[in-house]
Automatic annotation (TrEMBL):
Protein role: Component of the FACT complex, a general chromatin factor that acts to reorganize nucleosomes. The FACT complex is involved in multiple processes that require DNA as a template such as mRNA elongation, DNA replication and DNA repair. During transcription elongation the FACT complex acts as a histone chaperone that both destabilizes and restores nucleosomal structure.
Similarity comment: Belongs to the SSRP1 family.
Bias (Basic residues): 517-531, 621-630
Pfam families assigned: HMG_box, PH1_SSRP1-like, POB3_N, Rttp106-like_middle, SSrecog, SSRP1_C
Lineage: Eukaryota, Metazoa, Chordata, Craniata, Vertebrata
Organism: Falcunculus frontatus (Eastern shriketit)
Record-linked PANTHER family: FACT COMPLEX SUBUNIT SSRP1
Compartment list: Nucleus, Nucleolus; Nucleus; Chromosome
Protein name: FACT complex subunit SSRP1
């Protein structure tokens, strides 16, 4: 039997919402990693007390109970995986994986059982529903009923606000069943009540998010932010990570607390609590506990009396109470020697800290990106100036973060860091010797070895080639009309000719005026072929054979419906990504099968193309003959028109003394080959005859 079992796309139920992640079972215990937050739940094998397999909404689920009363629920298993899990539990955890189905009778009358941190409402031996008492935010009692209120969850579309239990009266002496019920709930509930004195208080701390100055009161299970306008109570169970980050000026420190779920004020959510400290500010701290309690609770991590820098005291107390490690910057050093990079995100300027396992941006808005959720990074040229560049990060979920206005001196340092962490760089490989190109970017003003610049140049060349191909020879004339050298020559000719022609033209102004329309006429002449361009480039012949598909496209057309059925509701872009992953993971033998199909399709296409070419050549010969015949007919008509126009022009002066309108009658009496030529000649003569007739009449009168 394998020592480990791994399951992807498993959902953990936390406060009413399902968080997806990966579950791993090993000899040492059970590990679940949340895909969204990166939080890891580790259950030691020695702590497991019970395992239950049951049918749930998302297939089948696994419920684990520990010896200290904690409950963990994981859904998304297939029914066929029960045997594998059951054998694993027997072999490594010495536990029987029990099968218990939920009661679906619909009754609302049953028995309440308290087990550890779980309230179970049962009908007979079957549970109807279970409530983790850590989700309870408040418990109130009435005459014969108990009301439970729950923490709101922003991630859940629908949240359960409260549940009321009716408790019938009993005849037991001295025991109120309602109060007993409430005490069982409150003993395990996550109820935030500021009872008793705080362990310690930090006064007037500068807070950047949410902005203002707050007093921080440290209680055993939560911290209380007390400001002039707002109060926030933050349970330690919602603290995800702690960060201690030095400011770039080396005189201040950021202390960042990551929260999940976030604190909220109205519609605003604060996922990070950011405190700013001065390194010079010191404090002497005395805990509101005796030395024995401090030693017993904190095991040497804190003492009753402490003194030192304010940021050290706050971070030390928070680390001891939250029981989480404090993340600090690693070995990254920027161009100025600082452990951060100045940049802008969205509309605000801030600091980007490369950490050992991610990036964090401080401070507006704060952003934390883990390496394991990064799909790729990209180095892009700045949009406003060449003195800076942009650093783009795209996550596996498709979210893109762009940190702009980074000084180019940081380029090589940041690339070396990203390369050392083995992150996927999008524009790597476009230029050989990528590391050298980044060094040259930091030192060179011309940026000749910038990979992004090289890519832009290649795209520019492609656009120029396409433009030259589509212009059909008209582009050269257009370029000549805008050639700076020719414009200089034209100016020189103007001033040379103006010296001799000044007496008639007056300082050469008329020459410039004559030349301007000439240039306009030239531009119009250049544009004429472009208007005819669509006529020369007509659509493809619909009867022509279609090009054969590649092996991948043949496979995709055959597999598209299967992918859609396996992933209902998948979008087109996600379908393409999924298909690419499946094709990449396909074995060589299966790919060869589709390669053979593509080769057969290519041979069929070549055969059909030969037949089409022969038929097309015959059609071309027939069209040429038809075109020649039409040209001959048009030429014959043109000759007849020419003879009639000559005859009319020679005969019209002979009747100089007659009226100008008689020319129409004269033309109409002439013989012509067609009625169409009569009409055209008469129209031309009607427009041209008045001037010669008037001249003849004038000469006759003289």
């Amino acid at each position: 039997m394998a020592d480990t079992l791994e399951f992807n796309e498993i959902y953990q139920e936390v406060k009413g919402s399902m968080n997806d992640g990966r579950l791993r079972l090993s000899r040492q215990g059970v590990i679940f990693k949340n895909s969204k937050t990166g939080k890891v739940d580790n259950i030691q094998a020695s702590e497991l007390a019970e395992g239950v397999w049951r049918r749930v909404a998302l297939g089948h689920g696994l419920k684990l109970l520990t010896k200290n009363g904690h409950v963990y629920k994981y859904d998304g298993f297939r029914e066929s995986e029960f045997d594998k899990l059951s054998d694993f539990f027997k072999a490594h955890y010495c536990l029987e994986l029990a099968e218990k189905d939920l009661c679906v009778k619909g009754w609302n009358w049953g028995t309440v059982r308290f087990g550890g941190q779980l309230l179970s409402f049962d009908i007979g031996e079957q549970p109807v529903f279970e409530i983790p008492l850590s989700n309870v935010s408040q418990c109130t009692t009435g005459k014969n009923e108990v009301t439970l209120e729950f923490h709101q969850n922003d991630d859940a579309e629908v949240s359960l606000m409260e549940v009321r239990f009716y408790v019938p009266p009993t005849q037991e002496d001295g025991v109120d069943p309602v109060e007993a019920f409430a005490q069982n709930v409150l003993s395990k509930a996550d109820v935030i009540q500021a009872t008793g004195d705080a362990i310690c208080i930090f006064r007037e701390l500068q807070c950047l998010t949410p902005r203002g100055r707050y007093d921080i009161r440290i209680y055993p299970t939560f911290l209380h932010l007390h400001g002039k306008t707002f109060d926030y109570k933050i349970p330690y169970t919602t603290v995800l990570r702690l960060f201690l980050l030095p400011h770039k000026d080396q005189r201040q420190m950021f202390f960042v607390i990551s929260l999940d779920p976030p604190i909220k004020q109205g519609q605003t959510r604060y996922h990070f609590l950011i405190l700013l400290f001065s390194k010079d500010e010191d404090i002497s701290l005395t805990l509101n506990m005796n030395e024995e309690e401090v030693e017993k609770r904190f095991e040497g991590r804190l003492t009753k009396n402490m003194s030192g820098s304010l940021y050290e005291m706050v971070s030390r107390v928070m680390k001891a109470l939250v029981n989480r490690k404090i993340t600090v910057p690693g070995n990254f050093q920027g161009h100025s020697g600082a452990q951060c990079i100045t940049c802008s995100y969205k509309a605000s300027s801030g600091l980007l800290y490369p950490l050992e396992r991610g990036f964090i941006y401080v401070h507006k808005p704060p952003v934390h990106i883990r390496f394991d959720e990064i799909s790729f990074v990209n180095f892009a040229r700045g949009t406003t100036t060449t003195r800076s560049f942009d650093f783009e990060i795209e996550t596996k979920q498709g979210t893109q973060y762009t940190f702009s206005s980074i000084e180019r001196e940081e380029y090589g340092k940041l690339f070396d860091f990203v390369n050392a962490k083995k992150l996927n760089i999008k524009n790597r490989g476009l230029k050989e010797g990528m590391k050298q190109s980044y060094d040259e970017y930091a030192d060179s003003d011309e940026d000749q070895h910038d990979a992004y610049l090289e890519r832009m140049k290649e795209e520019g060349k492609i656009r120029e080639e396409n433009a030259n191909d589509s212009s059909d020879g008209s582009g050269e004339e257009t370029d000549e009309s805008f050639n700076p050298g020719e414009e200089d020559d034209d100016v020189a000719e103007e001033f040379d000719s103006n010296a001799s022609a000044s007496s008639s033209s007056g300082d050469g102004d008329s020459d410039r005026e004559d030349k301007k329309p000439a240039k306009k006429a030239k531009i119009v002449k250049d544009r004429k072929p472009r208007k005819k361009q669509p006529e020369s480039k007509k659509g493809k012949d619909p009867n022509a054979p279609k090009r054969p598909m590649s092996a991948y496209m043949l496979w995709l057309n055959a597999s598209r419906e299967k992918i859609k059925s396996d992933h209902p509701g998948i979008s087109i872009t996600d379908l393409s990504k999924k298909a690419g992953e499946l094709w990449k993971a396909m074995s060589k033998e299966k790919k060869e099968e589709w390669d053979r199909k593509a080769e057969d399709a290519r041979r069929d296409y070549e055969k059909a193309m030969k037949e089409y070419s022969k038929a097309d050549s015959h059609r071309g010969e027939r069209s040429k003959k038809k075109k020649k015949k039409q040209e001959k007919q048009l030429k014959g008509k043109g000759d007849k028109k020419g003879t009639t126009s000559k005859a009319s022009s020679s005969k019209s002066p002979a009747k100089g003394m007659s009226d100008s309108f008689k020319s129409k009658e004269f033309v109409s009496s002439d013989e012509s080959s067609s009625a169409e030529s009569k009409k055209e000649d008469s129209e031309d003569e009607g427009a041209a005859s008045p001037s010669p007739s008037s001249e003849d009449s004038a000469s006759g009168s003289d």
